[in-house]
Amino acid sequence: MNKILLTLTLTILYSQFVNAQSGHMKDPVSFKLKNGLTVVVAENNEAAKVFSSFTYEADLIDQINKTGAKEILTAMLNSTAASQANQVSFTEKGGNINAVTSDFEMALQALSVSVQEPMMEQELFDKYKTELIHSVKARDRFYPETFTEETLAGLTLNDVKTLYDAMSIPSKSYLTIAGNITTGQAKILAKKAFGSWKAVAPTEISK
């Protein structure tokens, strides 16, 4: 629960900072969907927007992650999200939503599609792998020492899919929602977006 509350706290602080409001945040409410997904909701009816984050347990992911796989998976998730809604984005830590209340349902559905049905075609993998190699060569951002042209050359689409499998477990995932939305509305939308989500087998991922 500490990890969930940390994520929630960051979301709440960001929401309060953007909207310059305080004192109206209700106590967080936590519940689980039938598939095991943990949802935490914090209502603030004076906030201007709704903020949400989607995260995964990192232990197993860090153990199986091959150099570059997480970066390419993040790019693929962002590509999927961009085709759905512009209020959704992904970092290597998970997905995020920044939306006005009227757009939140659409954004949450887009996040759900990105998580459950990411675009993982070979052509897209090749594109992002090439971009990552060029970025590593240019050193236009920080990369660990393990990121070299040689280590990235051996990375395959299957490596990315293996990482995705490890991350696609509802019972090890967390959804936080904070801002201008009631707890009741958030529960309904969370169940609608993620209630039917199940852990996938490798053969179920598009090739």
TrEMBL record:
Sorted alphabetically, which InterPro entries does this protein's record hold?
Metalloenz_LuxS/M16
Gene3D superfamilies to which the protein is assigned, alphabetical: Metalloenzyme, LuxS/M16 peptidase-like (3.30.830.10)
- Give UniProt keywords alphabetically: Signal
List the GO molecular function terms.
metal ion binding
Superkingdom of origin: Bacteria
Tell me which positions the record assigns to the signal sequence.
1-20
* Name of the featured protein: Insulinase family protein
Organism expressing this protein natively? Pedobacter frigoris
Q: What is the lineage of its organism?
A: Bacteria, Pseudomonadati, Bacteroidota, Sphingobacteriia, Sphingobacteriales
